[in-house]
Every structure is written in structure tokens, then in C-alpha cells.
Amino acid sequence: xxxxxxxxGTAIEAAxxxxxxxxxxxxxRAMAGAxxxxxxxxxxxxxxxxxxxxxxxxxxxxxxxDDDLRVGARSAAHSLAGSAGTFxxxxxxxxxxxxxxxxxxxxxxEAPAVRAEGGEQLVARLRVALxxxxxxxxxxxxxxxxxxxxxxxxxxx
Length: 157
What we know:
This protein is mainly alpha-helical.
């Protein structure tokens, strides 16, 4: 029995319920596989961003952080925060935002070595958060420990 016209005007046969369920399940599995691939590639890119940030923090600790390196690392932290959040790595996203704030605070009176040490602690936690793809979608970090607290989804830009 025809279920109705298809996009090209030809009749589409109605599938038995079990067959439709199987097709839907196969489509869900294919989509989940594609998303896992995207997530894994984003995770690898974010781990590379962590290294850019870590290099800037080393330079900060040594008093050799120039503006180009700082701006590049801040941009890496910003991109990491957005990408990690998109793929469900909430803790990594919050750590990235905290690092972005730290790297953007050019007029901060705190000694650069002290700020760098705090940033290096965040980087260590970030590496752990990104190392396990199973951590995706598991909840948020404690903003009181990571850096500036955020209100209901607000973050630094």
C-alpha cells in the first residue's frame, strides 16, 4: 500500500513498523559515529591549543611573554573554551575560559610568575579533562576552584 508521494512524485511504500524502527536506529548510530569522529578531532585540536597556552605560561613565568605570544595563547584559550563546550567537555570549557581571562589580564598587579603558576595548574587540569573522551557531557567544573565564578552560563569573552 502506498503511503504517499515522495520528493520526486513517485509513490512511497509504507514500511512495516519494525523496519522503520531499524532504519531509525541505523540512522541514529551513523549520526553518533559521525559526531564521535568530530568530537575526537576537536579534542586533538584542543590538546594542541593547550600546548600553545602552556608555552605562553612558561614565557610568562620567565618574564619573557611578549604580546604576540600572549594574544595567540589567549585566542587559543578562547577557541578551546568554545570547542570543548560544543562537544560536551564542560570542565575543559570552563578551564579554557579561566585561562583566557588570565591571559587577557595585562594590567593585573599580581606578579606574572604567580599568575603563570596558577595558569599552569589550570593547564594540568585541562590536560586531564581532555584526555578522557568519556568525560564529555559529565557536568561542570567547580568555578570557585578554577578561577572567576560565572553566573548561569555567563563567561568572559
